Amino acid sequence: MTAATEARTRDRAAAGWTRCEGCRVLHYGKKLARNLGVCPDCGYHCRLSATERIAQLADPGSFVPLGVTVAATDTLRFTDSQPYPARLARARAATGLDDAVVAGTARIGGHSLAIAAMDFAFMGGSLGAAVGEVLTLTAERALREELPFLVVTASGGARMQEGVIALMQLAKVSQALASMRAAGLLTISLVTDPTYGGVAASYATNCDVVVVERGARMGFAGPRVIEQTIRQKLPAGFQTADFLLAHGQADTVCHRADLRGWLARLLTATGAHRRGRRPGDSRGAAGDSRGAAPPPGTIVTDPALLAEVDPWQAVAAARDTARPTTLDYLAGAFAGFTELHGDRTASDCPSMVAGFATIGGRPVAVVGHQKGHTTRELVARNFGMPGPAGYRKALRVMRLAARLGLPIVTIVDTPGAYPGSDAEEQGQASAIAQNILAMFELPVPVVTVITGEGGSGGALAVAIADRVLMLERATYSVISPEGCSAILWGHARYAGEAARALRITAGELLGMRVVDGVLPEPPGGASADPAAMVAAFGTAVARSVDELSRLDGAALVLARKRRFRAFGTPGVSAAAVLAEVAAGR
């Protein structure tokens, strides 16, 4: 940090009075600085310099500059109202920066990472060759030191004064991020106001995780350009943070005061402090207990040890809204859940929850259907029936977990995929098909737990797993009993008979080796004692993840493929397939 930059930062904090650009109210400078540059009246997020941004995000005293100086040059000999070198000189004098980015290494929540923050005050944060070089060097440092990389964007786009050389920086920085992705290192984009043009169309949106600061705007073309080019009137809130979240372009929107904490949780949940996959511990498989009730967390693998459950009663139990939901399991069995949103295409689906957390101290990705306990929650979550955006979001998170070398836990509780016309228009069948195909290639442990309803392809789309567990009163079926009854009996009144004919209970499916184990429910069922069910779930899942983590990625993929190849072949179980693969057969 130069002396001029330090002085600029001190001057802002010591300034007398500042008028908020949002509500036009005057605020004392020091008070505004203590509030992180956020207006205490209207919540407007004032623009920060790159050094101010890093100071707010990084642990105190942890930032170390990159230690390189890269200066822009006038390759094109460009002149508009003034020569390009004159513009550069003015920007350098005004900001104390060499160019529109400050970079180095730092810690957030104790986690080391590489960080680069753009400064809009330097020629609108435009992306030229010098900025692209600094960003690329920072990514390369992160690659060498195996660090996550956080880039903070604030830019009007590529720098016009450098022409096509500036355009090439989009590809240059992106290839550096691609190298990090190939190495299994996390990249994070923090979008601040404004982020447009080539920056939005490259590293601001092609990082693994996209966080948008409240009040920020992002788009490829700015509103003025759109309106003047195609004469289109834009909707209210266009390209705002909330717009981006609703349209699947962002993982979360954060108030400035919450950014450091959110990033710290993400780094913890994605295992940023680890190098490679942690080996499994020495705990063995859960044993079946004959005679007495099995201890909490036991995975029953012998169907003879399970009490018989009437299939139609199991359907009623699986649909009971008092049963724990995915969010309940995340709150009670996991720690530090950090939710990600959006399919990066069109929308976010509330019926599918996805993100990262830890279980038993191990970072994992978690994907699950979400219903709800009340009518309002059920409606808001579309009764746990995801559309295409939900399955695409799930796959995006699972693929990210695979790149980071993290196990995946999926929680199934859905009547099925949403059957509406809009879902069909957006490619529901294709989204499910892509998930099923892609999950076979994930080189990390995948554990699925069917906690309620396992409805057809909507369930299978997140259940291509190495180990499939099932709660004692859950169901798993090719079609709902009502649907089967209507098609084959000619009326839905025979749903009970259809449920029995379909053999959809945990015990029956365990006997057919469709599932690998059953989690006994508390007396009265999971609905009667949700806390006990959540605790048992946590114990069983942590154990399963640990056991599967002893196999390498190639062995997991091979065993997963053999597991599903064996369905319909008598006498072949998933456990036997895993044992054969582990033994090298």
Largest sheet, strands/sense/barrel: 8 strands, mixed
What is the name of the CATH class of the largest domain?
A: Alpha Beta
Low-confidence stretches: 1-7, 275-291
Return the average pLDDT rounded to an integer.
Answer: 91
Count of all domains: 4
CATH T-level fold name of the largest domain: 2-enoyl-CoA Hydratase, Chain A, domain 1
The CATH superfamily of the largest domain appears as 2-enoyl-CoA Hydratase, Chain A, domain 1
Rounded to an integer, what's the Rg over CA atoms?
A: 27 Å
How would you describe this protein?
- The protein folds into four domains: 1-44, no CATH class; 47-269, 2-enoyl-CoA Hydratase, Chain A, domain 1 (Alpha-Beta Complex); 303-550, 2-enoyl-CoA Hydratase, Chain A, domain 1 (Alpha-Beta Complex); 552-585, no CATH class.
- It has 23 helices and 18 strands.
- The strands form three sheets. Strands 3, 4, 5, 6, 7, 8, 9 and 10 form an eight-stranded mixed sheet that branches.
Secondary structure layout:
Blueprint: H1 3-14, E1 17-19, E2 26-28, H2 29-34, H3 50-57, E3 64-65, H4 84-95, E4 101-108, E5 111-118, H5 129-145, E6 149-155, H6 163-182, E7 187-196, H7 197-200, E8 209-213, E9 218-219, H8 223-230, H9 241-246, E10 252-254, H10 259-269, H11 311-318, H12 326-332, E11 335-340, E12 352-359, E13 362-369, H13 375-380, H14 388-404, E14 408-414, H15 421-425, H16 428-439, E15 446-455, H17 456-460, E16 467-471, E17 475-477, H18 481-489, H19 495-502, H20 506-511, E18 517-519, H21 530-548, H22 553-565, H23 574-582
